[in-house]
Amino acid sequence: MIDPVNDKSEMGAISEAIRHFPGAKRSIAYRHSFSAVGKHAELITNVDPAISVFDLRSAFGKMLALDTKVVLAGVTYVNSTSHHFGQYLAQVPDRHTIERQVTLRHPDGTLEERMMMDYQPRPTTSGDYYEFPYDFNKLGLWLEQAGKVQISTIGNAVIRSFRMRDLIELVLMKYPADQWIFFQDAEPVDLPFGKNATRDYIDEAGREDTAIWAVVDPDAICDRSKS
């Protein structure tokens, strides 16, 4: 069931606040839907769910055209969905677009059976989710070394901000010569600013997962689940 009105964003408190903001718009997608406010909200969210969520006509494509900035608040590039957008545009061989038959709940409560597109890893020989582990911090570090990332803090959280165009340009420039830019090397990249902290948790869909946070001091994390 895809229910844009009631489905949680599953991307943290800020995205949930935007979803509930008066007048907010939300795109319809099998995965990676967007909520938006402001003068470009209708443009960003008015997309055809029958196309891939990373198609240039999608919300990602429109934000690329609008020269959007990506903000990573308290997380590393591991959480950057814009890197998957880069993978789609680079046509990486280990991921593919697949059709999903879904039930869509409209705002008036009516139900519609329809097809939506998803973008997922291809089946692996080992049965693991990925054939080789990704390390999106590698591209992130290259952006930082090129002076393309603004880094600051809010409280204990490390904040990184970069132009989506800079990331996509880097991907399209490097990928033809090196198809391993998305994959982990012998050791994962250790970003020079901030520290990583991991916590096991239950996400908003009730699934077990591990959060990787980018913080100044891991010992100063306020864990509300223990309060």
Automatic annotation (TrEMBL):
Any one of the GO BP annotations: response to antibiotic
Keywords from the named record: Acyltransferase, Transferase
InterPro entries named among the record's database cross-references: Amioglycoside_AcTrfase (IPR003679), Antibiotic_NAT-like (IPR028345)
GO molecular function, one term: N-acetyltransferase activity
SUPFAM superfamilies hit by this protein: TTHA0583/YokD-like
Family: Belongs to the antibiotic N-acetyltransferase family.
Protein name: Aminoglycoside N(3)-acetyltransferase
Provenance organism: bioreactor metagenome
